[in-house]
Write a sequence for this structure.
């Protein structure tokens, strides 16, 4: 059973589109810092004869380079495999209407759309390239065509703190590494409030974000009276550089039938 689930998840995680890099500045910065420290470490040994300085520089350089590798792995492969498992565990029937809050180039949105043969997937974003390389509505539409789900996908330019949908519009709300981009805790709480508002009674919310922000989401969901509020770690496949930049999953259900 577990083997069959893993095969399904791997199949779902295979993508035809191009989803860029999350926060593209960071892996470049981590890699450059790592290389500079390695050079300083070698110079410390060979030129200045400083064993302690050279050793520390080499160790730190290696840590930064490994962090860059971890970041690239997560943004290019790890997050797809984790989200494939999450989506399959959600148990979508196939006729739901779902929303991806901060959809970017469509990594989660289009994977979910592939599980909705008679449903609809809506994505909202402000299309900021600092949050994801090449982030643009046209790119997401192109990815939807490449994945064969364009007819099931709707895209909207909107602020996640004020979703342009009526109350009770969706069966499931997803969000992946997006809400933390709002700097103010009140703004992040408002996004959670909006996500709950547009859910139908009995609807579910599934949010993945950095572990420093997820306690606030959990608290807000509880304040809103959501049921079965849970949080869990996603481990090394969702590390953006290391355990200090790990992501967690928060999920809950709206009261109702």
């Amino acid at each position: 059973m577990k083997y069959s689930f893993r095969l399904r998840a791997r199949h779902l995680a295979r993508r035809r589109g191009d989803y860029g890099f999350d926060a593209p500045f960071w892996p470049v910065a981590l890699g450059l810092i790592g290389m500079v420290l390695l050079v300083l470490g070698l110079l410390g040994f060979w030129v200045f004869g400083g064993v302690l300085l050279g050793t520390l520089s080499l160790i730190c350089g290696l840590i930064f380079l490994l962090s860059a590798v971890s970041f690239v792995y997560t943004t290019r492969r790890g997050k797809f495999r984790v989200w494939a498992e999450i989506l399959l565990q959600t148990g979508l029937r196939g006729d739901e209407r779902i929303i991806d809050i901060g959809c970017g180039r469509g990594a989660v949105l289009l994977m979910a759309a592939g599980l909705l043969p008679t449903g609809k997937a809506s994505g909202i974003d402000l299309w900021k390239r600092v949050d994801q390389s090449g982030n643009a509505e046209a790119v997401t539409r192109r990815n939807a065509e490449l994945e064969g789900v364009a007819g099931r996908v709707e895209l909207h330019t909107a602020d996640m703190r004020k979703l342009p949908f009526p109350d009770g519009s969706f069966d499931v709300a997803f969000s992946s590494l997006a809400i933390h981009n709002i700097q103010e805790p009140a703004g992040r709480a408002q996004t959670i409030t909006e996500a709950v508002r547009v859910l139908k009674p009995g609807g579910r919310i599934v949010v993945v974000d950095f572990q420093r922000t997820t306690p606030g989401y959990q608290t807000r969901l509880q304040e809103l009276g959501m049921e079965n509020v849970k949080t869990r770690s996603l481990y090394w496949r969702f590390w953006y550089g290391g355990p200090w930049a790990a992501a967690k999953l928060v999920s809950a259900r709206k009261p109702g039938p």
Notes: The domain at 94-253 is CATH 3.40.50.150 (Rossmann fold). The radius of gyration is 20 Å. The mean pLDDT is 95.
